[in-house]
Queue: 3 jobs
Job 1
Amino acid sequence: MEKLTIMQVAAAIGPACFMLGSPLFPSLIALLVNLSLQYGNSPASGYGYACYGLFLNSFLQDASASGQFGRLAYRLASTSDAKNMRSETFAIVGLFLHHRQAHLQETLPILQTGYQAGLEAGNLGFVGHNGNGFCINSFWCGKPLVELETQIRSFRQQFLDCNQLTAANYCSIYWESIHFLLDNPDAIEFSFSQGQIFDSKNSAGMFQFYLYKAALKFLIGDIALASADIAQARPYLAAGVETITEAVFYFYDSLIALATLSELGAESETQQQRIRANQARLNHWAEHAPMNYLHKWQLVEAEICRVQGQQVEAMELYDRAIAGAREYQYIQEEALANELAAKFYLDWDKQNIARTYTIEARYCYQRWGGNCQSQTTGCPVSPVIQSPRA
């Protein structure tokens, strides 16, 4: 009974320590896991295993072992006697662990269940974490924008009703991003400033705010502003570690940098180093979850080959990226890969080939729901295709 009480207390204060970044958090999780191994699992053990899996990813880059602990945590937290810790456990599994070995879409029911479990347990903080995780993962896995707009609007209103204002502010970023893509992609600017919704000490809020702005501005072809926004996101990257947005940051940071380069010469050594580091991290993620990350890595590699004048290699990599994104239903990244391939062929004066890729990009953007326009080849796509190379 004494050990069970200790485990319950460790699990009860663990989430608060995690959110505050307390140095006590790793010790609490180590205690919880050790007691579970010595005396058997308790209703709190699933949460401990989930957090231990997060440590394995973050500090040891052991995605395989992390995934095993994540699956164990999910099974234990799904039992009836663990319902009071289900919301916390599912938030960790859905946001940080499952996408490292399975398709990002598979995290959505986990996070939906965690959201409902939080409501039932009165755990409003993790209602917010699960709900926001669902919105983030839904956006980046390419769910249709019209459907997603309705879902995010509903989450935002529920957060406001529960007085979860920070969670509602996160939803404002996702919701307005979707509206720009649906309605007015030529005027990407939020109706609120960063200072109006997030204190500068809220690293996660700052990271999301600038990451979404950078991605949107890249998609409309405003490379200069995209570069400025991704630079603003960079100091806050730690707030997105092990979530899908960490990989998204590496992806767009590299694409934005490559869009500004005419060649990877000595004057761009800083950009070269950053792109290489980003690609090394994406490659590691792709080794364990190619369905989520391999096509991203391939598209950046294609752009590297373009900049280096390696046309044959670039052609192959563009096509691989397109095929991978299509196979795993990342419709927005299939569109982007087609678009960048079209720009590559236009720069090479292969206009007929470029038109084929442009038409494919248009089709993918339409299926996603994005209302992006370009006049470069006479076909509506995102203006990335018409932005000038440096």
Job 2
Amino acid sequence: MQCGCGFSTEYPMCNGTHKVVKEVKEKIIAAIEAIPTESNGAQLNAIGMRMLAIEAIKKTKGI
């Protein structure tokens, strides 16, 4: 029997790790999105890296 959340961890042994990982990913995304960026040319690289980091985190299993 699978865990009710849809992950493949067997229910009796499911320790909820996947839920913790999802929560941590969401916190990391929120922290990255909260980084202030200015709209001048010096900040364009920072904005791009921020977007790449968020997309990479979202693409991992669980988000």
Job 3
Amino acid sequence: MKEDSCWMNSSLLEIIPDGTGFAASWAGGKISPEFQRELRRMEKGEVTQAILIFSEEVDEQAKKTLLAAEKEAKSEKFHILKQSAEKAQEGVSEFFEKQAKDYFKGIKQFDFEQLGVKRLPLLNTMVAPATPKLVEEIAAQPNVLGILPNQPCKLIQPFRTGPKEIMRREVRDGITWGLKRLKVDKIWEQDFKGASVRIGHLDTGVYVDHPDLSGKVVEFLAFSPQGVPLIGCPIYDSDFHGTHTAGTLVGGRASGIQIGVAPEAKLVSGLVLQNGGGTLIQALSGINWIIEQDIQVLSMSLGFSRYEPKFEYYVERLLLLDIFPSFAIGNAGWGNCSSPGNISLACGVGAINYDSEAASFSSGASLSFYDKVKKSSTHVIKPDLCAPGVAVFSAVPPLLDGFEVNGNFYAWLDGTSMATPHVAGIAALLTQAAPEKRAREIMSTLYQTAKPAGEMGHNNRYGRGIIDPLKALQKLINA
């Protein structure tokens, strides 16, 4: 896909975030354009799932609390958001309880009780079964802000590699080339290693028996494709991807090579990609859960099958709760970019190689969204930042034919999935160093201090540039 094919006509939908988390203004219909197309294709008697986003129902005092900078008030914010969701969803909940079943009468192979209503209160979202007619009825409800479809999600597939020269240097230096290139060890020397910070990790799971991850995972929960939490499920990795990204986030140096950016941070891991695949409902359920685990950073190296601009609402919710969103931009090369990394408010992360060049696979594009109502365009350039994402050495489960050190397994992988936890880990270090700073401030500082690369200015190969953690730290603590 070339750059000009990234022009997206969003005549039906435009997200214009106001920075508060309350009033994402969508010019046009409530129903996602992608969902409208899906509903038109449905045969009579078919049932789908609708993801419903509601407007906030809060008074001025509650709004002030939600916008307050004090991070200690997070539990109070959770309480307000849950109350708001309950109030906002009341009418639609009653509608489903009393009337909606009539829409499904005579439809074979449909169990309303099994595929009934699911609520995600911290996202002010409801998941419900729907027919085209029912979606129209729901859209008429005044407190329904948006309706979008479920869709497949998948991990952003990495590439295996094994460059001998880089291997030799990492063994010699006792640290991965990426951490050394970013001068992370200079930040550690100032006693900032991520202590007291909790990093959210939504991926394929994590292999906690790896010594580099021993004692690092403090919470874990797996979710079914329908978003059902699998309570009591043991901690495991259904693939290898999650263990590798977790290692880059918080891993140690059991191999003699330090792999983790924030080795003293704790990991909250949600399995939302079973064997590398999942659904949007699964991912949203993971986000709703992981928010309440008091995380300060969220690392997601996954991609949606289709662009969904309404996901902007969820990224804005993360920022409202002071959670730094580090999302992979994709491995499809220049002229492409993957959601949710291409959502404007997210920190979309691209990959560089050992020579500090944008990796050939690293996605990037200039996106334009045209609003026919306002007769104006919004332009987004992705990625936002670049970080090491080629030949990244990290932990993997023993099921992968990896590089063995003292009975433990490792692999060198390429991908923006590998770059993303570098940025998330840096955000964790900066959060520890400047706990009074909000997630938006940390993100802005990283953008302002990034080392420009490629074409002059903000471009679609490097974004604002290569992340410069030490410079960002200095700017934050001297502000």
